Amino acid sequence: MSKYIDGELERELCKALEKHLKGCDRCRVVFDTTRKTIEVYRDSEPYPIPAEVHKRLHQALLNRWK
Amino acid sequence: MNQAVDDERRLVKEAKAGNYGAFEALVHRYERKIYNVAYRMTGNRHDAEDILQETFLKAFENLEKFRQESSFYTWIMKIAVNATLIRFRKSSRPDTVTIDELRGDPQEFHPRVVIRWDENPEQKYSRLENERILWRAIRRLPAIYRIVFWLRDVEQFSNAEVARMLKISVFAVKSRLMRARLELRERLTPYYGKKGEQNKLQGSAHAHVEVH
């Protein structure tokens, strides 16, 4: 199923799995919610980098550059 | 896309030639991403900042050796992941990963809860609430699963890239990824699942669903 989500599944197996998913409620729910799990994490906002963290990083880099 | 790649190659070239402005432009481009990934991996802002600094200082020191065989982002992420793994190995905090865990195979995992989700489950909550829900679910995952999930599914590095970063096999990446996805799915279901729906596993002759 993981391979199917990633589009890595061989054509034949893909067809077989799709056929199974049509008839099997439980597998379909597991599949749908797993795909959705990836989506919600992928769509989540990254944290802004705190201003002091940014400042300290650039100061450290500048010190090293000199 | 190609424009951005060319632009990056040019910045790397200029930085190698001693142009600090070019190096700083590269840092600007990726500092937020590295900070975020470090925070997700360690679960700790202080560690995330240390890893962030270490990553770019190391990138700066090793810039000469960077041959642009991968993108600059892949290269610095590899440095960040390495810094994180070293930190995990040194630390004895319970939340962190041990070397045994890194080598161990994931145990079999079968779904316990199979409930349909709402159409757009994240719309039920505010941005902040969603953030808390997602974070709470992922931070309880063992670090080896959390890292693989984050690099593969959120940052969208390839299986091969993640395998190289973590020094594990592609097979191990795939199996940990599957396990992580299923664990997270399970932990998010109480929040995103349709209210009033019955667990499809209950009262079933099948104790589990084959998901491999």
Kindly summarize this structure in a few lines.
Chain A has 66 residues and is mostly helical. Helices cover 77% and strands 0% of the residues of chain A. Chain A has one domain.
Structure description:
The complex is a heterodimer of chains A (66) and B (212). Chain A is mostly helical. Chain A has one domain. Helix content of chain A is 77%, strand content 0%. Chain A is built from 4 helices and no strands. Chain A has helices spanning 2-5, 11-23, 25-43, 51-65. The radius of gyration of chain A is 22 Å and the shape is elongated. Chain B is mainly α and 212 residues long. Chain B folds into 2 domains: 2-94, RNA polymerase sigma factor, region 2, helix turn helix motif (Rna Polymerase Sigma Factor, Chain: A, Orthogonal Bundle); 101-192, Arc Repressor Mutant, subunit A. Chain B contains 9 helices and no strands. Chain B has helices at residues 2-16, 20-42, 45-62, 72-90, 99-103, 127-139, 143-154, 159-166, 170-192. The longest helix of chain B is centred in the N-terminal third of the chain and has 23 residues, at 20-42. Chain B is elongated. Chain B starts with a helix and ends in a 20-residue tail after the last helix. Mean pLDDT of chain B is 85; it is low at 96-105 and 205-212. The A-B interface holds A 1-3, 5, 25-27, 29-30, 32-34, 36-38, 40-50, 53-54, 56-58, 60-62, 64-65 and B 20, 23-24, 27, 31-33, 35-36, 39, 45, 49, 52-53, 56-57, 60-61, 111, 114-117, 121-122, 127, 130-131, 134, 138, 149, 153-154, 156, 174, 177-178, 181-182, 184-185, 188-189, 192, 200-201, 204, 206, 209, 211-212.
Highlighted features:
heterodimer, A: 66 residues, mainly alpha, B: 212 residues, Rna Polymerase Sigma Factor, Chain: A, Arc Repressor Mutant, subunit A
